[in-house]
Amino acid sequence: MNAPLPLKQWLSPARPDETPIAWGDKQRWTLGQLRRDVARLQAWLRQQNAQRWALCFDNSYLFIVALLATLGAGKTPVIPGHRRLALLEEQQALFEGLLSDEPMSWQGPFHCVTSSDAASPAPLAAEAITDSQPLELFTSGSTGQPRRIVKSIASLDREAGLLASRFAGRLHHCRVVASVIPLHLYGLTFRIFLPMALGLPLHAETIRYAEQLSALSDRYRYLFVSSPAFLKRLDHRLTPPRLAMLLSAGGAMGQQEAAAAQAWCGIWPDEIYGSTETGVLAWRSREHTSSPWRPFPGVAFTAREESFIAHSPLIDSPEGVQLDDILHFDASGAFHLAGRRGRVVKIEEKRISLCDVERRLLALDGVRDAAALCVTRNGRQTVGALLVLDDTQPEAWQGQRGRALQLKWRQALRPWLEPVAIPRYWRVVDAIPVNTMDKRVYTQLQELFNETA
């Protein structure tokens, strides 16, 4: 295996222009095209006063163009984690300009990034991209406010190298396809950095349906980067692609889903455990129900009161990072996950801040108080909302009008929340119950959502 290529060498002149980089349904991109597109965008960026640029892309190739051009122009790339315009406007203090692969009604510096065969200017004289340049990601904090995570380019390169040491032998001559977007660390790492480091052509478009996966050319073998939510929806009547490896992350996969995926495509999924704050921490194969998580080299965990602290070559802080998960270790140092602490939950691989859901509920017209919690029905986790309404609303909740009110609330929440974070179940009460210390006991609130005969 060749040494993984660091980001600052992705455009290296030592590599031929014909090197394949990415493909889509209607287009193919080579390294020569990437150089021209980066040079064109970099020239535009260097004329802009804005320093911090939000990258809001679905297309992986254009994301790479924006990432390299932003860094090459001496700017800071910011990945807000979504492309919802209303939320971007609310969060505009986090960045100064916006780059996207689709037009947006953005009131500020904006550029819609495209790929062009037209002659591009030569790259402007600029300092080379350095290992220490930052990339910023934002994720849901425990308070519901976006939490800023700064990653150096060196750290992201180290992560790709760590993964290459474990998986590169299985990926020779593969192509990379994904059902996850590059706006979170999982997609950024496996859909962007890993294929670029290993010189593997990547699919620019997001796989959203099993039919797209089945339609992939059987001339190639693929690494499919996915999630339990997508794998649960596979249509096993379709013909599977030639998969060399199937990766899943974002949430634990049930053994039934793992076995069904293996029966369809012929290989067992590998799962990745980690977070935006920590990077990758561990992996496991789902061949057996009891398969434990095995830490990557250099990763260690220490117990502190009721939580665990992760230490890793990918974590710059010597204090490590406190985990939201509860871990149970065996004698070999492998571990199993035993639930989450706090009010950040995983629903269909999305990290949902229940505090943020509550904040949005409180902003609804007529809502005086609110509580959000996980509700499990038929093995599926969703969000439930417990509301206290002001004096103008209780009558509107009764009968059929209550359903119309729920629809109105859902529509009002849609610009702000992930679809899986919008409450599916609603309850209205006179007051949200508290204990003798005037604190909410969410296990008791859960009882209000129990199904009745």
UniProtKB/TrEMBL annotation:
Family stated for the protein in its record: Belongs to the ATP-dependent AMP-binding enzyme family.
Matching SUPFAM superfamilies: Acetyl-CoA synthetase-like
GO terms of molecular function: ligase activity, forming carbon-sulfur bonds
Known EC number: 6.2.1.-
Gene from which this protein is expressed: yhfT
Protein name: Putative acyl--CoA ligase YhfT
Keywords in alphabetical order: Ligase
Organism: Phytobacter massiliensis
Domain AMP-dependent synthetase/ligase span(s) in chain numbering: 137-285
